[in-house]
């Protein structure tokens, strides 16, 4: 079926569902991936189709280290990197290796809702820690440590999903100190770190692996294509050794070995960097279109802070508003959003909603928000 779009959450034709947290089709670079695949297969050696070494192909890890060194503006070494099947798989592996069923973990309130199921799969108890404009509240972590001993803290430090904000550098460093003093790990989901549209975000937790407390998750889903199912973990050598010791890796070797050969070409020939520059330009335009449309239609009835990167706006209404039942009504108006409570660890945040500016062009974003306005009359 040529041109068929099949993905989780595809809306009916004509609907502009700003709840979808995925890139638009025009930003999925088929030519770039075709050329990279071609140049890999033109010279492929038989052993490159065999199992890969547990941590991932060494040439890929060297290219990735150079790419991250440039992107983070700080030295990243190949021997701190481990190939994953994306951030979700990295999170699943971290939950398996660094926690036991019944353990407590700290998770931001709100947080990426699909991570909750991964934690539940591993029998982990979630304790929510609030975020504010400066990101994760380190003072509340400190307070909660009096009654809990978490195996790890799960955080989305840059361009939060759904909140959009960045945790400040001061707080990041303080949280690493707390993790060291209280012996827990920081599982930092840094999938949006390179999607900055104005100034650079604070340093990635990936640059703080020397603490021995950091497990930083990265992914090509947001900067190249989710279908590659390729990402990485950046961590200290000791923690990397523990990640590699699992039965799944022992049996199957490097995760998504062939994808890593293809993505290596995109790093080495510079096409990934040009693609990310284009994403930054396009997403910045969409972000500004969404901000302007919100000002036009939602001033005085909702609050939001314009994010500086990532995919999302988090919009807050009066406490009397419950956004969940409005989703059906939104569908009837051929628009859509994600309700706030979906992202809550405690079934709260009913008065909030999340909008994504990655999946539609600027005109559709303006139209989708205009259609939403009557829901709040
Ligand atoms: C915070 C966060 N983590 C993980 C993912 C999924 O990443 P991946 O495709 O690398 O598994 C997403 C995608 O929406 C996300 O927003």
Question: Would you kindly provide a written description of the structure presented here, covering whatever features stand out?
Answer:
The chain is α/β, with parallel strands linked by helices. The protein has 2 domains: 16-29 and 273-376, Aspartate Aminotransferase, domain 1 (Alpha-Beta Complex); 33-269, Type I PLP-dependent aspartate aminotransferase-like (Major domain) (Aspartate Aminotransferase, domain 2, 3-Layer(aba) Sandwich). The protein is built from 12 helices and 13 strands. The protein has helices spanning 30-42, 58-72, 87-97, 113-121, 138-144, 169-182, 237-244, 247-252, 257-268, 271-298, 326-332, 362-372, and strands at 16-17, 81-84, 104-109, 125-132, 135-136, 152-155, 185-189, 214-219, 231-235, 312-316, 335-336, 338-339, 352-356. The strands form 3 sheets. An 8-stranded mixed sheet has the order 2-9-8-7-6-3-4-5, sandwiched between helices. Strands 10-13-12 form a 3-stranded antiparallel sheet, with helices on one face. A two-stranded parallel sheet has the order 1-11. The longest helix is centred in the C-terminal third of the chain and has 28 residues, at 271-298. The protein is globular. The relative contact order is 0.18. The chain binds pyridoxal-5'-phosphate. Residues 21, 86-88, 112, 156, 161, 189, 191, 219, 221, 226, 231 line the site of pyridoxal-5'-phosphate. Pyridoxal-5'-phosphate is lined by residues 21, 86-88, 112, 156, 161, 189, 191, 219, 221, 226, 231.
């Amino acid at each position: 079926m040529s041109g068929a779009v099949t993905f989780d959450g595809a809306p009916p034709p004509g609907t502009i569902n700003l709840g979808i947290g995925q890139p638009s089709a025009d930003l999925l670079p088929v030519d770039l991936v075709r050329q990279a695949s071609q140049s890999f297969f033109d010279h492929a050696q038989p052993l490159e189709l065999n199992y890969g070494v547990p941590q991932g192909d060494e040439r890929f890890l060297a290219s990735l280290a150079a790419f991250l060194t440039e992107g983070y503006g700080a030295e990243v070494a190949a021997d701190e990197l481990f190939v994953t099947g994306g951030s979700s798989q990295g999170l699943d592996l971290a939950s398996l290796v660094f926690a036991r069923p019944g353990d407590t973990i700290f998770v931001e309130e709100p947080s990426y809702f699909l991570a909750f199921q991964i934690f539940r799969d591993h029998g982990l108890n979630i304790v929510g820690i609030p975020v504010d404009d400066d990101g994760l509240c380190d003072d509340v972590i400190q307070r909660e440590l009096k009654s809990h001993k978490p195996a790890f803290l799960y955080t989305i430090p840059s361009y939060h999903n759904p909140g959009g904000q960045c945790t400040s550098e001061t707080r990041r460093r303080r949280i690493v100190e707390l993790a060291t003093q209280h012996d827990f790990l920081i599982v930092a989901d840094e999938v949006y770190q390179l999607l900055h549209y104005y100034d650079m975000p604070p340093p990635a937790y990936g640059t703080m692996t020397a603490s021995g407390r950091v497990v930083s998750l990265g992914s090509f889903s947001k900067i190249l294509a989710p279908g590659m199912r390729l990402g990485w973990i950046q961590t200290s050598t000791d923690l990397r050794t523990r990640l590699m010791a699992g039965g799944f890796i022992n049996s199957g070797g490097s995760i998504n070995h062939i994808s890593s050969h293809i993505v290596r070409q995109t790093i080495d020939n510079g096409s990934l960097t040009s693609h990310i520059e284009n994403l930054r330009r396009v997403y910045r335009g969409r972000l500004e279109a969404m901000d302007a449309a919100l000002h036009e239609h939602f001033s005085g009835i909702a609050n939001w802070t314009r994010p500086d990167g990532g995919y999302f706006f988090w919009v807050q209404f009066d406490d009397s508003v419950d956004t969940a039942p409005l989703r059906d009504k939104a569908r009837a108006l051929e628009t859509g959003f994600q309700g706030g409570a979906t992202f809550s660890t405690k079934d709260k945040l009913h008065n909030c909603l999340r909008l994504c500016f990655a999946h539609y062009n600027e005109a559709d974003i303006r139209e989708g928000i205009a259609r939403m306005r009557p829901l709040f009359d």
